[in-house]
Design a protein that fits this description.
The complex is a heterodimer of chains A (91) and B (408).
Chain A: H1 2-13, H2 18-21, E1 26-30, E2 34-38, E3 42-46, E4 50-55, E5 58-72, E6 76-88
Antiparallel strand pairs in A: 1-2, 2-6, 3-4, 4-5, 5-6
Chain B: H1 2-10, E1 12-19, H2 22-31, E2 36-42, E3 45-51, H3 52-64, E4 67-75, H4 77-86, H5 89-104, E5 110-114, H6 121-130, H7 144-154, E6 158-166, E7 169-176, E8 190-194, E9 198-207, E10 209-210, E11 217-218, E12 223-226, E13 228-233, E14 237-243, E15 247-263, E16 265-283, E17 286-290, E18 300-311, E19 315-335, H8 338-357, E20 362-372, E21 376-388, E22 390-394
Parallel strand pairs in B: 5-7
Antiparallel strand pairs in B: 1-3, 1-4, 2-3, 6-7, 8-12, 8-22, 9-11, 9-15, 10-12, 13-14, 15-21, 16-17, 16-19, 18-19, 20-21
Classes of the chains: A alpha+beta (91), B alpha+beta (408).
C-alpha cells in the first residue's frame, strides 16, 4: 500500500498520466448509447441487461438494455446499447 | 472503421459460442490477442464475429474452457475470391466492362458552346468539323491553342475563346466583340438624295444648295440638296464653284400600299387526346427503333424527346434514347364571318406595319379597303407616313477638285 501511495504521489507531483502510470481504467461515454472502457482486466459477466468487467480498481457494472459488445480486445471494451447506469463494486 | 476494413480483407467468421463459462472463454481469448466484435447474447448462446485467423486459435481455446465455437458463416475478401474461382467468367466480364468503359470515355461525345449571341453556334460547330474537330474525336492530344486561334481568325465577332475538355464533354466558351455600326464612307463632295418617292413636308439644310422646297414632289434618287455651291454676284455673274459635303434633314410624306388576302375558310386542328409513344436507341450515328408501338393516326403531330446518357455531368456517352410521341389531330373546315375576317385583317395590317417600319412609325393617314368574294377577303391598306428620306451620295464634280496648296 505504501508503495502505491508513493507511486501515486510521484505521479501527481510530476503530473504524469495516471492511466499509464497507475493502470487506472479510462471510461468514455457517448451519450447513453456507447461506453468505452480502456485498461480492463477481463469480462466477468455478460447479458443483454448487464456487463460486468474486472478492472485494476475492482468490478465495474454497466446496466442497460440490449447491450452489445461492439469490440473487445485485451485493452478495450466498447459496449453499445441503451446504457442506464455505470457503477463500481465496492471492494 | 479500420477494424471493419481490415477484417473484410483478412476475412471474418460469424460464430456461435456456447458452453458453461463463455465469459471466461472471451476473457482468455482477448488476453491471447484475439479480437472479437459484435458480441451479443441470444438466449443461452453468444453470437460474435471473429477474424478468420483467430477462429482456428479460438477452437483450441474452446476445448480448454469447455465451450464450443461453431462457425455460422464465413465472410470477407477470401470468401469473395473463392466464389470467383468457381465463376471464371465473372472477372473476365468485369475486365471487359472496365476496358470498355475506359475506351468509350476516351472520346469526345458532346461539344457545348457558351456565350454566343450574334454568332450562330451551328456555324462554329460546322467550321470545327471542317477543321477536323468534331464529336467522336479522341479527347487526348487535342490542340487546344490551335483550335482557339482558328476560331478567332475565322469569326471576327469573337473577342475571346477558350476550349476545355472535361470528361467526354468539350466546352467552348467565348465572348463576342461589342457591336459596332458599319462605317459610313464620306466623300470630299456629297449631295443629299431622296431614298423614297414623296412630298417634302419639312427640310433643314445646314450645308449645300437646296434644289427642292417643302410641298415639292420628289422621286427616289433625285438630288434634294446639292453639294455644288455657285458663288456669283448680280454684276459679275458666276465667280467660282465649290464642291462641299451637303448636309440636310429632309422629312417627306411617303405613301405605302399593302395588299393581302384573308381566306374565309380555314382548317382548324385540334388534339383528340389520343397519343402513341415509340422509342428508339441511338448508338453513335446509328438509330435503332424499338418496333412495338405503331400508330394509325391520319393526322398527327410529332414531339421527340431526346436524351443522351451520361455518367455524371462530364461524361456524356454515345448512347441516347428518343421517345417519340404522336398526338392525334382532327382537321375541321371552319368558316370566318366577314366581320371577323376584317378584324383579323386589321391585326395583320398592324403587325406588317410594325415589321416593315419599326415600332413607332409617324402614320398620319391609314385607309383599309376590303373587297369580298365567295372565297376570300381582299385587303388593301393605304398608308401615309411622315419619315426621313435624305441620304448622302458622292458628288462627282464637273471639274476636278483643286488640292489646296500648302503655305510655304
Amino acid at each position: 500500500m505504501a508503495k502505491i501511495n508513493i507511486k501515486r504521489k510521484l505521479t501527481t507531483a510530476l503530473e504524469l498520466p495516471k492511466d499509464v502510470m497507475l493502470g487506472l481504467p479510462i471510461i468514455t461515454m457517448t451519450g447513453d448509447e456507447e461506453i468505452t472502457i480502456t485498461n480492463h482486466k477481463g469480462l466477468v459477466e455478460y447479458s443483454a441487461g448487464c456487463v460486468r468487467l474486472s478492472t485494476p480498481l475492482g468490478g465495474l457494472k454497466i446496466f442497460g438494455i440490449n447491450l452489445i459488445l461492439k469490440e473487445i480486445t485485451a485493452e478495450t471494451v466498447m459496449i453499445a446499447g441503451k446504457i442506464a447506469s455505470v457503477s463500481w463494486e465496492v471492494k | 472503421m479500420f477494424l471493419k476494413i481490415w477484417s473484410f480483407f483478412a476475412g471474418y467468421v460469424k460464430v456461435e459460442i456456447a458452453g458453461f463459462s463463455v465469459e471466461r472463454f472471451i476473457s482468455q481469448a482477448v488476453t491471447k490477442g484475439m479480437i472479437l466484435w459484435d458480441l451479443q447474447r441470444d438466449g443461452g448462446k453468444f453470437l460474435a464475429t471473429i477474424s478468420r485467423k483467430d477462429f482456428w486459435k479460438a477452437q483450441n481455446l474452446a476445448e480448454k474452457t469447455s465451450t464450443r465455437v461453431n462457425p455460422k458463416s464465413f465472410h470477407g475478401f477470401p470468401v469473395f475470391l473463392s466464389k470467383i474461382k468457381k465463376r471464371p467468367l465473372l472477372p473476365v466480364g468485369a475486365l471487359v466492362f472496365i476496358v470498355g468503359m475506359v475506351l468509350i470515355t476516351s472520346f469526345i461525345w458532346r461539344i457545348d458552346i457558351e456565350g454566343t449571341n450574334r454568332i450562330n453556334a451551328t456555324e462554329i460547330l460546322s467550321f470545327l468539323e471542317e477543321q477536323g474537330f468534331s464529336v467522336g474525336n479522341p479527347r487526348h492530344g487535342v490542340a487546344y491553342r490551335e483550335i482557339e486561334v482558328l476560331l478567332l481568325l475565322e469569326f471576327e465577332d469573337i473577342a475571346w475563346v477558350s476550349l476545355s475538355i472535361t470528361g467526354t464533354r468539350a466546352l467552348i466558351r467565348l465572348t463576342e466583340t461589342i457591336y459596332h455600326p458599319p462605317l459610313v464612307r464620306r466623300y470630299d463632295a456629297e449631295d443629299i438624295v431622296a431614298t423614297k418617292d414623296g412630298v417634302i413636308v419639312h427640310m433643314a439644310t445646314s450645308a449645300g444648295t437646296p434644289l427642292f422646297r417643302p410641298g415639292d414632289v420628289v422621286a427616289a434618287g433625285e438630288t434634294i440638296v446639292s453639294g455644288q455651291l455657285n458663288i456669283e454676284t448680280a454684276e459679275e455673274g458666276l465667280l467660282a464653284t465649290q464642291y462641299i459635303q451637303a448636309s440636310a434633314e429632309v422629312w417627306a410624306r411617303v405613301y405605302y400600299t399593302m395588299q393581302f388576302n384573308i381566306p374565309l375558310t380555314y382548317i382548324e386542328k385540334s388534339f383528340t387526346g389520343r397519343s402513341q409513344r415509340a422509342y428508339s436507341i441511338t448508338v453513335g450515328s446509328q438509330r435503332f427503333d424499338i418496333p412495338h408501338a405503331t400508330h394509325n393516326f391520319i393526322y398527327y403531330e410529332v414531339i421527340e424527346n431526346h436524351r443522351q446518357t451520361s455518367i455524371g455531368q462530364d461524361f456524356p456517352l454515345p448512347l441516347s434514347t428518343t421517345a417519340t410521341t404522336y398526338h392525334e389531330l382532327t382537321r375541321n373546315l371552319r368558316s370566318r364571318s366577314p366581320e371577323f375576317a376584317q378584324e383579323l385583317a386589321q391585326e395583320l395590317a398592324a403587325r406588317r406595319i410594325t415589321e416593315e417600319m419599326g415600332d413607332n412609325p409617324d402614320i398620319i393617314d391609314k385607309q383599309i379597303n376590303f373587297t369580298q368574294n365567295h372565297r376570300e377577303l381582299e385587303v388593301e391598306v393605304f398608308l401615309t407616313v411622315i419619315e426621313r428620306i435624305d441620304q448622302t451620295q458622292e458628288l462627282i464634280p464637273e471639274t476636278p477638285l483643286e488640292t489646296p496648296e500648302e503655305a510655304p
